[in-house]
Amino acid sequence: xxxxxxxxxxxxxxxxxxxxxxxxxxxxxxxxxxxxxxxxxxxxxxxxxxxxxxxxxxxxxxxxxxxxxxxxxxxxxxxxxxxxxxxxxxxxxxxxxxxxxxxxxxxxxxxxxxxxxxxxxxxxxxxxxxxxxxxxxxxxxxxxxxxxxxxxxxxxxxxxxxxxxxxxxxxxxxxxxxxxxxxxxxxxxxxxxxxxxxxxxxxxxxxxxxxxxxxxxxxxxxxxxxxxxxxxxxxxxxxxxxxxxxxxxxxxxxxxxxxxxxxxxxxxxxxxxxxxxxxxxxxxxxxxxxxxxxxxxxxxxxxxxxxxxxxxxxxxxxxxxxxxxxxxxxxxxxxxxxxxxxxxxxxxxxxxxxxxxxxxxxxxxxxxxxxxxxxxxxxxxxxxxxxxxxxxxxxxxxx
Length: 399
Hints:
- The protein has two domains: 2-168, Growth Hormone, Chain: A, CATH 1.20.1250.20; 199-393, Up-down Bundle (Growth Hormone, Chain: A), CATH 1.20.1250.
- The chain is globular, with a radius of gyration of 21 Å.
- The protein is built from 15 helices and no strands.
- Helix 4 runs antiparallel to helix 5 and helix 9 (206-228) runs antiparallel to helix 13.
- It is mostly helical.
- It starts with a helix and ends in an 18-residue tail after the last helix.
């Protein structure tokens, strides 16, 4: 969790410097955007391979390797002499990013006891959010000393995170089955072997399909459209200053962190669906109406509400994923598909919503985004709660 916060801090730290640094090579705005998108695209492309690597080599090795790749590629960005070098180095960082993010999720599933998964997922998400909030502030200050410095600082931070993980987590406990009822025979060595649930088996489960839908909506709305379109709506749609265009994201984060701190505990106590459904409903309603805000005050209020909705369902579907896959999960295509669903939403959301905003205005663009959240709500409406279910890792492919 500590490493997760450091990683997010560094990611936010280079966020303001990356497009400015790319622009120094005299390329078009489209080319500048391509450098930003290359990271997400490479994450999406290499997620399936990473799932298989985690299965073969274990979470710890892939996690540390991923951190090393991002550290080296980020440091290389600082010394790029051309636009194409910067593009390649930043894209390579996306490969390392998907390695440590999938490994971290696999570790979270295996190390958190079933009755604490919601709280563990909440703290995990809160650490990432805190790092994402403070990173751009530090990065903006470092830019004053040169556009290359944030990349160097992030690379050093990643090395520190890698050393910390290597020392604090020298060995990963062997995969174990979910808690068995009293009187059951202890699992044999063969039975306790790590199981990589294939996505074809997982997709038969309505709860898993609902998890993919809500994670896709999270990527589309929170990591994609929220960053790409909301500041533009505040500035161009409402005519407010650049300062407010940036501060509006802080309102969203404030609602986010308030909800995240309680969502995990509530889902551990009452189940996943009772927290998922209100969260998705709140996010859907607030996003549908955001683009029709008459003034800044209304837009800020709706943004806070949307942050609360996202904060309720984001950590909860992570905990639900652990319920479905079970503690014997190690990598595999089902876990990779979960990561890919968010990345796919983050890549396609800004493109689709941006095209709609260009053609018909901000209102329809946010209606489209709200509809994506609404689809996830419907999926969870018909899904079963996962908290006390038998995990897929304990079920035969035909069971």
